[in-house]
Write a structure and sequence with these properties.
- By secondary structure, this protein is mainly α.
- It has a single domain, classed as Leucine-rich Repeat Variant (Alpha Horseshoe).
- The chain contains 14 helices and no strands.
- The longest helix is centred in the first third of the chain and has 17 residues.
- The protein starts with 26 loop residues before the first helix and ends in a 5-residue tail after the last helix.
């Protein structure tokens, strides 16, 4: 499992390669060919700076966003992809309508780091309608920081219908959205179970296994049994070793004696190493 970004939501075990992302031939060729910087999340410094340093960086970020030039905004957005400051929200929201997908994508990530109720509907609008896969992928990640907002059904639809690069982040965020209680956990688990069984992308299946492990404690007993059985079948029969390993790890982390005993029996019978 990849390490989660500092101060952000937990992520699933697999990221994706740039080749898996949807490149709009017109927009990206014209706007991104020379300035595609990758995901801001991939560039974060894991070292926690001192509070005074963070405050100074945030002040500088606000000034950059107010300056208005493309380069200044990009620099400011990088700061708020890393740090939280409620003063940034009013400056981030208008950038969700920027014509440049890099600006939109970075603003989405920054609003994942700086969640605000005012951002929920604009983010959901981008998830449903933005033509650019990088932007939708950013939204799928960011909505994991909005578990109390009405994001469950949009994430379920995304996991059913979007491209692989977006689906894998939707699976991770669905675990966050469903982890606020049984009422949300059950429909989230139902979709993750389906994706675990039928999704063609191994990374999505792997993230679905990871998400089911996280939701297990919030599920009623019949659904818990469904989760265990699905993870066992995935562990034994999925065609990708990474998915099998993630399913086994999810089972082990449930820390349920009967599940651990079953795993040991499979080892004793030579079905697991």
């Amino acid at each position: 499992m990849i390490d989660p970004p500092s101060s952000g939501p937990s992520t699933g075990p697999f990221s994706e390669s740039p080749q898996e992302l949807y490149l709009d031939p017109e927009v990206l060729a014209q706007e991104l060919a020379e300035e595609l910087l990758g995901d801001p999340l991939d560039e974060l410094d894991p070292v926690d700076p001192a509070p005074a340093t963070i405050a100074a960086e945030c002040d500088h970020g606000l000034a950059l966003l107010r300056e208005g030039s493309h380069e200044a905004r990009m620099q400011g957005l990088r700061i708020f992809c890393e740090h939280r400051d409620p003063r940034a929200v009013d400056l981030l929201l208008p950038l969700l309508d920027a014509s440049c997908p890099i600006l939109r994508m970075s603003a989405v990530y920054a609003l994942g780091r700086n969640p605000s109720p005012l951002a929920v509907q604009p983010l959901l609008g981008l998830l449903a309608a933005d033509h650019n896969g990088y932007v939708r992928k950013a939204v799928a990640w960011s909505l994991g920081n909005y578990p109390d907002a009405p994001v469950l059904n949009p994430l379920i639809r995304t996991l059913q219908l979007d491209i692989a690069a977006v689906r894998l982040w939707a699976a991770s965020s669905l675990a966050d959205a469903g982890g606020t209680g049984p009422a949300k956990a059950d429909p989230a688990a139902a979709q993750l179970l389906l994706s675990l069984r039928i999704d063609s992308e191994p990374a999505v299946r792997s993230n679905s296994a990871w998400g089911l492990g996280r939701l297990y404690a919030d599920l009623v007993e019949p659904r818990q049994r469904d989760v265990v059985e699905a993870l066992v079948q995935t562990m034994l029969h999925d065609g990708e070793s990474g998915v099998r390993d993630e399913a086994r790890l999810a089972l082990e982390q449930l820390e349920q004696p009967e599940v651990l005993e079953r795993l040991q029996t499979l080892v004793d019978e030579g079905l697991l190493i």
